[in-house]
UniProtKB/TrEMBL annotation:
Pfam families: 4HBT. GO terms for cellular component: cytosol. InterPro entries: Cytosol_ACT, HOTDOG_ACOT, HotDog_dom_sf, Thioestr_dom. It comes from Cellulophaga fucicola. Belongs to the acyl coenzyme A hydrolase family. Residues 8-120 form the HotDog ACOT-type domain. SUPFAM superfamilies: Thioesterase/thiol ester dehydrase-isomerase. PROSITE patterns: HOTDOG_ACOT (PS51770). One of its GO terms (molecular function) is long-chain fatty acyl-CoA hydrolase activity. Keywords: Hydrolase. It comes from the Bacteria. CDD domains: BFIT_BACH. This is Uncharacterized domain 1-containing protein.
Length: 180
């Protein structure tokens, strides 16, 4: 197995026509269907990089920026942004294209943390990331920052660490009524 691999070596993309079966009650493509496709492409990319079976450990924020219409082509692109010892952060970008006008829209981007597993379900060491450009360094550094923020966030709101007093001022301008 290679010690380091480039993001280009494991980059994956898929394009799929959105059908009526993919739509929600509002007539747009169902967000859950897109999330499923995103998870699949993140798996494919991480598995290609690690040469192992991968599982989804976490998904970092998914904001649906633009609706996807039935009849549009949806393209998902995935690449490795970060590698740890056994985990990888896969950046996933979703774009739609109106096949009659050619108009393309960025629909969402997200970051999937994937962990490689061996045949016994134990975490598998993954190849590191060989970065060849400034964009790759930016993505790697951003992934480190996201990881740090997630850790801080999870500790702050654990029951044993949470200090209500620290948040009461913030809540005053929100749509909440506190009756303790």
């Amino acid at each position: 197995m290679k010690k380091f691999k480039t993001a280009k070596e494991s980059k994956v993309s898929i394009t799929e026509l959105m059908l009526p079966a993919h739509s929600n009650f509002g007539g747009k493509v169902h967000g859950g269907y897109i999330l499923n496709l995103m998870d699949q492409i993140a798996f494919a990319c991480a598995s290609k990089h690690s040469r192992g079976y991968c599982v989804t450990a976490s998904v970092n924020r998914v904001d649906f920026l633009n609706p996807i219409e039935v009849g549009e082509l949806v393209t998902l692109k995935a690449s490795i942004n970060y590698t740890g010892r056994t985990s990888m952060v896969v950046g996933v970008r979703v774009e739609s294209e109106n096949i009659t006008t050619g108009e393309k829209k960025h629909c969402n981007s997200s970051y999937f943390t994937m962990v490689a597993k061996d045949a016994d379900g134990k975490s598998l060491v993954v190849p590191g990331l060989l970065v060849e450009d400034k964009q790759g360094i930016r993505r790697f550094a951003r992934s480190i920052r996201r990881k740090e923020q997630a850790f801080k966030r999870s500790n702050t709101f654990e029951s044993s660490n949470f200090k209500m007093e620290d948040f009461l001022d913030t809540l005053e301008s929100e749509n909440i009524k506190i009756a303790l």
